[in-house]
From TrEMBL:
Keywords assigned: Cell outer membrane, Membrane, Signal, Transmembrane
Record bears the keyword Ubl conjugation: no
Organism: Flavobacterium soyae
InterPro entries with a match to the protein in the record: Bac_surfAg_D15, D15-like
PANTHER family xref list: SORTING AND ASSEMBLY MACHINERY SAMM50 PROTEIN FAMILY MEMBER (PTHR12815), TRANSLOCATION AND ASSEMBLY MODULE SUBUNIT TAMA (PTHR12815:SF47)
Protein name: BamA/TamA family outer membrane protein
Amino acid sequence: MNKKHNHIENQYAKYFLLFCLFFVLGCSNTKYLPEGDLLYIGGSVKVKDSLIKKKERKALEKELEDLLRPKPNKQIFGLRPKLWIYNFAGEPKKQKGTRYWLRNKVGEPPVLFSKVDLDYNVSVLRNFTENRGYFKTRVSADSTVRNKRVTAEYTVIPKKQYIIKSVTFPDDSLAMSRIIGRSSRRSLLKVGKPYDLDIIKAERERIDARLKEKGYFYFNPDYLLAQVDSSKGDHEVKVRIIIKPDTPPKALTAYKINNIFVYPNYSLSNDSAVYRKRDITQYKDFTIIDTTETFKPRIYDRTIYFKKGDLYNRKDHNLTLNRFVNLGTFSFVKNEFKLSDSIPNALDSYYYLTLLPKKFIRVEVLGKTNSASYTGTEVNVNWNNRNLFKGAELFTVSVFGGADFQLGGVNKGKNIYKLGAETSLTWPRFITPFNIEGNSEYVPRTKATLRYEYQKRTQLYALNSFNTSFGYLWKENIRKEHQLNVIDVTYVSPNHVTPEYLEDIEEDAALGKVIEKQLIFGPTYSYTYTNTMQKRRKNTIYFNGELDLAGNLTGLVTGANIKKNDTIKIFGVPFSQYVKIRSDFRHYLKLGKESELASRLIVGAGFAYGNSNTLPTSKQFVVGGTNSIRAFRARTLGPGSYVIPPTTNNNYTPDQSADLKLEFNTEYRAKLFSIVRGAVFLDAGNIWLLNADPDKPGAEISKDFMKQIAVGAGAGLRFDLSFLILRTDLAIPLRNPSLPDGQRWVIDDINLGSSTWRKDNLILNIAIGYPF
């Protein structure tokens, strides 16, 4: 009883000390204020209007509060740690050292009430509400002082919002006016909608963009005037869009493209250079000025979308610039349009292109660790030629090598070494028997690759792996990307298999699959859609779908059927025949300026048939690890409820894989301070075999597969170093499908005080980048 009493006292003491710490942190922030000044801790806006719905009123209040200046010191859980650090560091004696760094880099100076201009904020709030159609709005301001802290309160009393009654467009005889009139159905100004100055500005930009597609190069939105008449009607306005009378004549003129000049080897140092006749090449509609014949002229025909006599339009203008940039051979791309001196109402187009170095070498040195307790390093040396055949082809030769060591554990001494080379050639166009022309701003590419890798597992075996592929990569736009490998061939052959490993295969037949010869060939296709680059959207998504078809046509032609012992071999190796699909869907919900909820769903399935009864080991699905279900080590989970039996031979870490996969992850991410971000997460999923395996009871998919879902949770820190993100995640299993049915939830058994429990269940993941 006495021990229990002491424990309770200790707990109260901890809470009291924590409360005192918070109190000190809060109070000390006002101790260092200048004499007679106050700490400004924020402002609030109250909109008083019974006609506005509560939801809309709250949204308007939030918008108005975001306009208030200055912003108060940043808070975390009601405290202002950056301000406390600033005060704690004190005035540094010199502009370097720890004190200077804490005060000026980590800390944040106090936001003083003397810097708050209430009248200025009142005018900003009034202008904003009136621009939204709440004319004659009244705004007042007041402040409240408590313990040297002050808040500002603003009261906004808007009048009834004005509604658009009618919208009219220019009706004069100008050709430009007719274009504007024909596009009126796309107008952003809608009758019956509230008056909004921002919408009027957007409408002017919409009209300008439309005119830019019709040759009006010199026009801009400032030449449009929106006349608003609120004199008639009950809180209604008439909006009339007109072309300003003082608009210059050249802005009212549509221009065509005349001459097109290209400088493919341009630099500022030769800006005033005099070119010889032999340096100038005429190719179709292009005049190419190049002293070194850097590119074959046909590359300009595929990149420049303007042709002589075309009406100028902004779409082709931007499309051309983007395609030059996406060729990957230029460090700088500049475009100018000048009035033609030979024909009226025409523009000469000039393209100035500054080259990147044609040849370069990149060396990468990587350090890595994995959940099997292997630590190692890898070195990659890449030699590149950006213009191999003078058609902006990228030729790359890579040599790589690495080693993984396990200094302790079951695989101590069984190190992994790898060495290999890869060469690839990428053409900035489709190479096909028939002509394919796209109108995307992204250059389509054809890529051929040849790769060899030798992997040696000390005391066990070695693998030779060959791969060659030929395919296409193209983007429809910034959101949609495709990759199609028409040919993708992989051949794996073992050698130097040790007697020790052969003996282990007799105990565990699954080890034999690792050293089986493999021949995989067939097309693969991948589609990616994402809008995550749109930072202002509250909801963004990412989707990747993959389709892998191996040996299907060959199996059909040869009639291969492994079930009838009719396995077809090519060069003495049975070829793999299967269909595999995988989808990865991610959703990002922005909850605040520095916080979001990120979720991912992965579904995958593979079906072997014809010449194969199982998927190749390298093509099967796995779960667990730093980017998967983080409460379980990589490849240790599943399939299904299968339990890895304790064997006398414990020389290998688990390596579980299967034909089906279902995985769901979600995590809340928020900025804590400076470069540190925090996360709490929940992971769930498993893998299953499509067909029963007598050596793996419980591994087959069934109607009760949901009872075999593993669940893990945890928390982590992310250190955003700009050039990379270092991630640490600490996870614990909540549900383990390998436990007996009815005992799989392990929440009740959590015992952080037990060193044995921590060793068996707490999983620390260290990785680079976010998991998804």
